[in-house]
Amino acid sequence: MTRPRQARPTPGTIAAIVLGAGVPLAFVGVFFAWPVLAMVGRGLFVDGALDLGGFSDVLARPRTLRLIGLTIGQAALASVVCVLLGLPIAHVLYRLRFRGRRMLRALVVLPFVLPTVVVGVAFRTLLRDGGLLGSLRLDGTFAAIMLALVFFNVAVVVRTVGNTWEGLDSRQEEAARVLGAGPVRVWFTVTLPRLAPAITSAASIVFLFCSTAFGVVLVLGGSRFGTIETEIYLLTTQFLDLRAASVLSVMQLVVVVALLLLAARARGRRTAQRRVDAADAVHSPRLGDAPAIAVTLLVAVFLALPIVSLVLRSLHTADGWGLGNYIALGGTGSRNALVVPVWVALGNSLQIAVQATVIALVIGLAASLVISRRPRSPGLRRALAGFDGALMLPLGVSAVTVGFGFLITLNQPPFDLRSSPVLVPIAQALVALPLVVRTILPVLAGIDGRLRESAAVLGSPPWRVMRDVDLAIVARPVLAASGFAFAVALGEFGATSFLSRPDRPTLPVVIFRLIGLPGGDNFGMALAASVVLAAVTVAIIALVERLRVGTMGAF
């Protein structure tokens, strides 16, 4: 029996594909590739000629070598700790059935989307003298940074591994037990090999996030500890050493590309595994689950402590307990530390985050619709994979590099946007775009192609097939992607610290300014503003969790 000839794509279909790929590529090209390459060019070219001497000059500096070692060391250590803690938590949250599991999942994922400045301030209140853990004397130490990085990124391991683990067929483990294998042997010979791609993907993403951490390191590390990311910031803002900053950006970009390729390869191996109904994969807690449950409860307490400490300290004023710090948000702080009141900055943040979310959603949805297609041509498949990888690059490239790249490229017609109010939303949309794609794309890729074929056979034109099949199925994930994009844009600090105007600051920029100025009133206002920003973020994530769409598992 001969196979029916596949229908040739219509001009309208081709135009839709070109438009769906062209708009995201143009957006990423103009607002990401161009600024980043401009920064990179300053490290590779001098007076129009290729000059690699800057690399030897920068690498010969003892400070640079120390910061590279700190960056790699803290990222590697945080990745290992996140994996060791994330595996038992993933087992509890995705393989056990108990009351309150959804609430515990929300608590675990919450730190990942909290603004970095808020987390930095929360850990300072927790670890400084008078804080809940002030007796440990960890304020301003390397351990404080490590705790904050683990606080941020353990959710990546839990979600990535948990979503894979939940869908694995448990009959292989049961068969191994029937044949006499003990729990430890079953774990190392059956379960761990099947989870290895997900663990590799999660660890590489955690390493990427930790090596490019900015806000939390800047707040907690001070002048003693830093990373390549914070060094790029100092070189560009304080020392105006653009060439050295460009050299570090090049090195960082190489590492980011390598890690994204590793994560993509691991993700491909993970999605090829057979998945089963999640209801068949979970079971009630058993005696052997006690160690994993204990670890989960301890980590849950650890995740809650910084937020509890932040709220408590925000209610403490010079006159005792009260709402004085929150009332002060209507002013500009001690000695007029701010140009505008904090509530105005919050309004700016909300407005800019809405604009950034719309941009990221339109670009991300168009790109996901194109990438989700499964062409027969190997060349087209490789092209789509490359397209997908290009959209992930903003996830790990220095936000400082992008922000400063904006200033040196988007300063002349037709892209003279330095004074334009759309500059900050565009920068924030770049940061949110990878999360939007990783949320929507797996759902689109999982749509049975026969649904589209049936709609086409019934006479529906391509645009209606897309509306009635693709967009109808992806509606809830789009809402979830919107929530995550909004939360990420709301707390973005790296690029925004470069681009926001003094008369129109965002709330994270205002918080960082308040904690850097003397005066108890200013610090109290920073605490209250951090609680407000965290509360808005929590409300958004709670809404997303109600949609039951896992995001981290898409990595």
UniProtKB/TrEMBL annotation:
Pfam annotation, one family: BPD_transp_1
Protein's membrane topology: Multi-pass membrane protein
Segments passing through the bilayer: 12-34, 67-94, 106-127, 142-162, 195-222, 242-264, 292-312, 352-371, 383-410, 422-447, 468-490, 523-544
CDD domains membership: TM_PBP2
InterPro entries: MetI-like (IPR000515), MetI-like_sf (IPR035906)
Subcellular location: Cell inner membrane; Cell membrane
UniProt KW keywords: Cell inner membrane, Cell membrane, Membrane, Transmembrane, Transmembrane helix, Transport
Domain ABC transmembrane type-1: 68-263, 346-544
Similarity section: Belongs to the binding-protein-dependent transport system permease family.
Protein name: Thiamine transport system permease protein
